[in-house]
Design brief:
By secondary structure, this protein is mainly α. The protein contains three helices and two strands, in the order H-H-H-E-E. Strands 1-2 form a two-stranded antiparallel sheet.
């Protein structure tokens, strides 16, 4: 195989696999499993992108103690009930 073919295979399977693993880690899911699923099937990257976490993930998502919804960590106020974070 030529270098261009290796580069194409790495880009075609590697980039979606790495993106899927990173998104899974940020959402509190298994990054190895989602990375392996995303490499041959890039559709799973979009599944992860639109899927909200169900529990708090430190550094990425927090759970509101009042309404119980999960929202991004950097947000100062819960976007669902308006309660300021602590």
């Amino acid at each position: 195989m030529l270098f261009k073919e290796y580069l194409f295979i790495t880009a075609f399977f590697g980039i979606p696999g790495i993106a899927g693993a990173l998104l899974a880690r940020r959402r509190g899911k298994n990054p190895v499993l989602w990375g392996l699923l995303s490499a041959p099937f890039p559709f799973f990257v979009f599944v992860l992108w639109f899927q909200k976490p169900t529990e708090e993930v430190p550094g990425y998502f927090r759970k509101c103690p009042e309404c119980g919804c999960v929202y991004p960590w950097k947000t100062k106020v819960c976007k669902y009930c308006g309660r300021p974070n602590e």
